[in-house]
Design brief:
alpha+beta
């Protein structure tokens, strides 16, 4: 069985809206994503108001996401790391200004 990624290098920022909370984080090494046939190291944890969560590749454009890659991660451990990280920049106001 493949080992799921359960650590992050850095939590880059968070955004909270009325529908979801999201954290962008980086991994120590790039991860190959077969659907995109490319390697990525920035991801977005989306936690919806119903508490369901998913992880996506963080797009190079502000706040955009692409492929869902939840299958690569231990979502509960990543969620715990992100939610308990101190001093994570909050970009909620910037997100609302751009959208």
């Amino acid at each position: 069985m493949e080992t799921l990624i359960n650590t992050v290098e850095q939590v880059n920022f968070k955004v909270e809206t009325s529908c979801f909370k999201t954290y962008e984080f980086s991994t120590h090494n790039g991860l190959y994503v077969e659907e995109a046939q490319s390697e990525f190291s920035s991801f977005r944890l989306m936690i919806y108001k119903n508490e369901e969560a998913a992880i996506f590749v963080a797009n190079e454009f502000d706040y955009d996401i692409s492929e869902e890659v939840s299958y690569l991660f231990d979502i509960e451990k990543i969620k715990n790391i992100c939610e308990n990280q101190k001093d994570v920049p909050d970009f909620s106001d910037d997100y609302y200004e751009e959208n």
